[in-house]
Amino acid sequence: MIVVGDLVTDVLVVHDRAIEAGTDTDAAITLTGGGQAANTAAWLAHAGCAVTLVAAVGEDPAGRERVAELTVRGVRCAVRAHKGAATGSVVVLATAQERTMLADRGAALLLDPDDVAEAVAATPAATHLHLSGYPLLDARSRPGGLAALAAARTRGLTTSVDAASAGPLRRAGAAAFLDWVRGTDLLLCNADEAAVLAGPGTAQEQAGALTGVARNVVVKSGGAGAVWASRDGMPEMVPAPRVPVVDPTGAGDAFAAGLLVAWCAGGDPRAALAAGAALGAEAVCRVGARP
Q: pLDDT tens digits for 135-172?
């Protein structure tokens, strides 16, 4: 499988009380690898899938560390290190209920269309390409994201896109984003992203509406589970496992990985949702976005 998108450093701040402005708030702070695409790739490797990550970092110690971490986990990295650029960083403020990101995508904005096309061509065994939506949501990295979908179409790969984040989606515009991902085999979004893309409604209604753009749509609703809608079948819904939540960071990335492994192996929507829910549940029981 090929995954395209961001590889960054996460400064993860886990706190169990409201942040007090202008003074100190106790927290547990961890410096670790992050980025939606990189996290999904790590979880895919954890699930036993052969995976290549296509991304961009800076030619700096952080970039070298981020690539080394993934390589040790079994991810093949087609990652270009850009001279003079800094590897992206994201401050993640997380409680057991929610996480908020302050993002400096840095070199991730330099995702090069030629690098993406070359990496896809150099991975002949791949049958599926998964694109994090983040490259599409900024004009500087958008050509690289579009090149990924174009290269997949040329190769005859199936495709999936994660809608990434509600705030950047609103700024980019729902109509524009849906046009960029039109014709993909699978679109994944959480409840907030589905509201941006499909408007108000139940998860089942939103997923059904979005099948006019993608052949299959999954809407994740956290502890309420997830819904799968397709153009040619009945909707499926799977509840989320009940587990103690420590940190929700990366849960959606783990969910995507579990779902893709099952679906690309021939599993039906219900089996794919269950596999995604299981890996997502594993993710929320630990601190950080990686296995």
A: 999 999 999 999 999 999 999 999 999 999 999 999 99
Q: Is residue 245 part of a domain?
A: yes
Task: Quickly list DSSP for the chain.
Answer: -EEES--EEEEEEE-SSPPPTTS----EEEEEEE-HHHHHHHHHHHTT---EEEEEEESSHHHHHHHHHHHHTT-EEEEEEETT-PEEEEEEEE-SS-EEEEEEEEGGGG--HHHHHHHHHT-TT--EEEEESGGGGSTTTHHHHHHHHHHHHHHT-EEEEE---HHHHHHH-HHHHHHHTTT-SEEEEEHHHHHHHH-SS-HHHHHHHHTTTSSEEEEE-GGG-EEEEETTEEEEEEPPP----S--TTHHHHHHHHHHHHHHTT--HHHHHHHHHHHHHHHHTSSSS--
Distance CA 79, CA 77 (A): 5
| 291 in a structural domain | no
Number of domains the chain contains:
1
Q: Which distant-in-sequence residues (6+ apart) come within 8 Å of 16 by Cβ?
A: 95, 96
Question: For 34-78, what is each residue's pLDDT tens digit?
Answer: 999 999 999 999 999 999 999 999 999 999 999 999 999 999 999
Residue 242 to residue 257: CA distance in whole angstroms: 19
pTM for the whole structure: 0.94
Residue with tokens 């269309």: 113
Which structural domain range is residue 172 located in? 2-17+29-284
CATH (domain of 43) = 3.40.1190.20
Among residues 65, 67, 85, which one has the least CA distance to residue 75?
Answer: 67
